Amino acid sequence: MADQADITAMRRAIALAARGLGSTSPNPVVGCVVLDASGQPAGEGSHQRAGGPHAEIHALRAAGDRARGGTAYVTLEPCNHTGRTGPCAQALVEAGIRRVVYAVGDPNPQATGGADTLRAAGVEVASGVLAEEAEEGNIAWLTSVRLGRPYVLWKYAATLDGRIAAADGTSRWITSAESRADVHRLRAEADAVVVGSGTARADDPHLAVRGVEGAQQPLRVVVDTEASAVKPGARVLDDAARTVVAVAEDVLPEDTAHLPETWRISRAPGGGLAIPALLAALHRQGVRSVLLEGGPTLAGAFVAAGAVDRVVGYLAPVLLGAGPHALADAGITTITDALRLDVTETVRIGPDLRITATPKER
Fold first, then answer.
1. 22, 215 in Cβ contact below 8 A?
2. 56 given a catalytic annotation
3. What is the CA radius of gyration of the chain?
């Protein structure tokens, strides 16, 4: 049974882990807090970037000799393998840590087993403290390991009557400046931002992060099945970030000659690209989290493929009465097949309402 000291220390570790969102991929975000033998804070740290020291190493370095006889709180089971860095379980043993408390077990078969190594060395080990909170903070990486594909967050902006543009196609701006700034935060936390050919044609989007200090730019991906939407000079082709245009595997090479990087993806039976194949290509590139920004046709394809893990909708206090809806055909033909969602958060963003929900099946 966790006591209040365990809960307080683990909650701090979870907050530290969140600092790594957008910068640690393809590794997880992890936080660590070390208390000395008397229960006083001695050191803390987070995983900052892939290939760099893990959270436990930062915390042990900060604690120094005060780690001996102390307790380490880690959001993810300490790793048990040697990659670009050494095994954290062994580092904790060598530092003289007496007790290790972790929130979530490591599902990665290459790294799991840290708890067993610690116990074999005589270290007391406890698990499951604030597991739900820690899992939520690391959900993108955990999903990618468990399902073998990136975690997908679908974001859209719409009027209260569900329109993403007016009847004449104009859409700038339905939502407020505050909501648009919040979207840049979502981009900064994602490994890749994905849009479809309709959005590329209508909006000529840039897709890079702006206004978030220290943000790493996500991979920009345009799903352009026929290689007809991304033209020379498109904003997404500038040097602000890497851009990939996903096209059908049978598109002629001359049709993609103007594009800096293309991925050839198999076609879906009903048209467009096969979403599982696209996600597999992203996963092979180390993408663990995707921000799906548009438009309704691509969103429908992702929903139909069962590949949406979270929905974030920005609803503006505006009515249009006509124009495209946020979601096109998703393969749902009857109310009994509707994708039911659990609303996990509602927040006012300027004059708008941001609603976050997850599919009940997740």
1. yes
2. yes
3. 23
Q: What letter represents residue 332's amino acid?
A: I
> CB under 8 Å to 26, separation ≥6 — which residues?
50, 141, 144, 191, 286, 287, 288
Which runs of consecutive H residues, i.e. helices, occur in 250-346?
Answer: 275-284, 296-304
Catalytic residue among 44, 56, 77, 293: 56
pLDDT of residue 80: 84
At 50, the pLDDT band (50, 70, 90 cuts) reads confident
- With tokens 């958060």, the residue in question is 345
Given this model, what pLDDT does residue 1 score?
58
Residue 30: its pLDDT value, please? 96
pLDDT of residue 87: 87
109 CB neighbour count, 10 Å cutoff: 9
Which residues touch 143 (CB under 8 Å, ≥6 apart)?
149, 150, 151, 288, 309
For residue 232, the one-letter residue type is: P
**Can you list the alpha helix ranges (DSSP code H) found in the chain?**
4-17, 55-63, 88-94, 114-120, 131-137, 139-147, 177-189, 197-203, 275-284, 296-304
pTM of the model: 0.90
d(CA 268, CA 85): 40
Instruction: Give the SS3 label for residue 302.
Output: helix
Strands 310-316 and 289-294: unpaired
